[in-house]
Design goal:
73% of the residues lie in helices and 8% in strands. The chain is α+β, with helices and mostly antiparallel strands and 302 residues long. It has two domains: 2-56 and 164-301, no CATH class; 61-158, Alpha-Beta Plaits (2-Layer Sandwich).
Length: 302
Amino acid sequence: MIHMQTLISGFKTTLSNILNNKQTFFLSVATITISIFILGLFLMLFVNLNGFLSKWNRQVQLMAYLNDDITKSQREALVDIISKSPNVESYLEVSREEAWAEFQSNMSENLKPLLDLDFNPLPASYKIKFHDVENRLVFIRELSEILKTKKGIESVEYGEEWISRFEKFMVFSKVFLFAMGGLLCFGLTLIVSNTIRLSIYSRQDEIELMLLIGATPRFVKIPFLLEGMFQGFVGSVLALFLVGGVHYYLKNEFQSSLDSMAIKFNFISEPFLIGLVGLSVFVGLMASYISTFQFLRMLNKK
């Protein structure tokens, strides 16, 4: 009962603090909103890029191009390696004639007269499809390295250079996201801390009197801790509404183009949404705790 009364009293005092310091409160909330909005935009971009990479990863096939003079025994050896690989779902042999016919069917009508050749320049190949499993690209690389060493193979392709660059970009994006999140949290802690400090100093005489008549430090801290948490909550909710508005606009403008590539532009998933709100509330709590701790320590030194 005592704890409940303390909490109710803390809520009342928090509301009074907010009403008495409306300008600083709204300034702090606006700063939190802008910071979480920026972080949310980058997070939404990262989530969609990561989804695109995962989807594209599932569609990657290994192309093993064969020498024109490959022997029957060499071909059988290659088929044996491919078929016995536990991660291969299926493989398809494409003859030189089939490859040339497919190339011509995909070519623009305007370019066909320019490629009216008397010979077929394309090699035969194997299209190798892999199971949709974790670390799929690792298995593709492993089989690629094995096939490169075998006789009868001219070259092996699966977009390795492009995939490597995209993976490095995703790693960089993740590091950048964490670094930016850390810097924003540090900046928000300072801003909210200063806002709470102003609220504390506006009630300094009252707080000193409360301590003199027996109020505990915890009783003094609770309203300011609640104020910091409330600032963080309101700021994060407003920021997520803004991110939702940006997502709605971008989806309406570009989803039809993305549909042709079977890509869906997603909003931030629920765990990340909860994480952003929780992070903002935690930053508000820590900033308030720092301010109240410093103030009470200063009073004890007097």
